[in-house]
# Entry
Amino acid sequence: MYNLQFIVASCLLCATDIICQAKTIKKGDAFLLKPYQELDSWKGKYFPYAPGEPHVKKVQRVQLSPNAISKTEDTWKGPWFPYAPGVPHSTPKIESAEEMGHRICDDGMINLKMDYDPEDVRQNFNYLCLTSNRSVFDPNMNTEALLTEHFLPSAYEPASKCLNESISYTHQPPTNGPFRPVPAVYGSYKYLPPQRYVRNLAEGAIVMLYHPCVYHGQLKELQDIVNGCLYRHLITPSLSLSPKRPLVVLGWSRSLSMSVVDKKLVAGFIKQNAKIGPLAMQNLSRVVEKRETYKAGLLSEAHLVTDLDDTELCGYLEQHM
# Structure
């Protein structure tokens, strides 16, 4: 009897467990998501893609008729930067030094080879002593100094020529005539062509020339005199001088040639001819530090004696004569 009750109870327990599991499954099935087609009621648009749609880029091509393109004319009349519409973007051409030299009249730096090329070693002969007998240049006390003046009409105006024109002179060494527009910086040069120093003569400078083979003692003495007399001076070698008188001091249209330096004679020439010329100005100090200048071959700049206007000429020198 006991076993029968036990069997019945076990059967009831098993049946109850099966029913509970079935209810649980059924109840759990209510929470399972069904396909979105049945559950999703959204009727609008998805961005960028609807669920389940493959991610493929869509390109819509539209064929426009020629009449659909606007033909409105541009009324802008001003300049465009950097290029106007339709103008090809070309790289600007870089000028060579030679091309720039033809375009620039004279700036003291470009196309200098027209008169003298300081970079060309073949032109070293302008300042070298190449003679085998230097004794012919020795000072001679019996050779008198020679003062020369080249007369010019009162209405004469020297021409200022650009570097695309050659310049020649009627006498050597030249003391007047055409010249380059840009003056040389005052001082001593390895070599300074006459086309430059004539420009400085025109504004009242004193130019000292010496032959490269001259006796060095006489050269030093004349340099000291010129350096001590005025600021407005230039010193350069020149092959145009003769062995008989290898030292020369120039003013505008005048020259003093010597074999032996005479201090009083040189100082008198400077005082008589300095600051005289068609371009001479009393107030040189106003422009001398602001203007374009030529300085190729410059060894040393001139030092002030009194001031840039050379108010007093050879004053210090006369005290020691």
